[in-house]
Amino acid sequence: MISASAPGKIILFGEHAVVYGRPAIAAPLAQLRATATVAPGESGVRLVAPDLDSAQWLHEADQNDALAAALRLAQTATGIRQFPPMTITVTSQIPVASGLGSGAAITAATIRAVVEFLGRADLLTPAWVSALTYEVEKIHHGTPSGIDNTVVAYEMPVYFARQQPHNHIEPFAVAHPLRLLVADTGVHSHTRDVVLDVRRQWEADPDRFETIFSGCGDIAQAARHAIEMGQVAEIGRLMQANHELLVQMTVSSVELDNLVRTAWQAGALGAKLSGAGRGGNMIALVTKETETAVRHALFASGARTVLTTVIAHNTVRLAQS
Length: 321
Ligand code: MEV
Fold this sequence. Notes:
Layout: E1 2-13, E2 24-40, E3 45-49, E4 54-57, H1 66-78, E5 86-92, H2 102-117, H3 126-141, H4 147-154, E6 158-161, E7 168-170, E8 178-184, H5 191-204, H6 206-229, H7 232-248, H8 254-265, E9 270-274, E10 281-286, H9 291-300, E11 306-311
Parallel strand pairs: 3-5
Antiparallel strand pairs: 1-2, 2-5, 2-6, 3-4, 6-7, 8-10, 8-11, 9-10
The structure holds (R)-mevalonate.
(R)-mevalonate is lined by residues 11, 15-16, 18-19, 141, 144-145, 147-148, 191, 195, 275-276.
């Protein structure tokens, strides 16, 4: 039996604008993971997702089913003519439709477990897993930038820009650990729908949206510098500025604005929505001293869950992938 997992993710800076070529910064959310387990079966390939109360045979799965798509891609990429009989069980701690990369994590975990089960663990570099996961993300999201699959497969904070022929993926130094609260509005929101709506608005008013996107890109660039220099107060200020631009894109919501304002008033250095928006999660930059007060205030303002994550020095080097 083989098991593999992949983490959730948060976008620190630059969501949506990253779809339009601007840089963005994301980090893994290691304490929430998706796990896939592959066990030998008696016949056929069985896909089991107990969280969703679902079990199906691969040969009967819908063309657009993400798990089935991940398997078919893995089959083509490994050159295996026929899968051996096996049962793949997928579970996830990452809430769905909440901006935390649940889809990408499930796909990456499944690809890792299945490819290792097939005896091809040698293929499983972060770049390879990321590329396959991206193909499945297209089914979920339509026009994904590639940042979710990248951060989930590399499992480290990345500075990312969508580029041809290869995306720009850069790890960076974190001079001072960043303590973040991740608070869930409890409102479900589908990335595909929000990304599509931003595209419609961009098509209707390209000049205005290009200006907003460029503002987000400048913020991501400045934030990277501030993170590398350990300028924590400046990082907080940039988060506020990024949130304002996301409000202008209309991807915030009453619940997100409420939690962002609450965090700020309770002593956070900065706060913003994270991910596609219109629901899902927000992040607040805190210190050890302000963490408890901000957490309590977020719960009192309606947050369903509040997690702490600390983004510290990058320990993984891209060159090893
Ligand atoms: C979703 O995590 C981030 C978005 O920018 C979409 C994307 O980059 O594919 C909203």
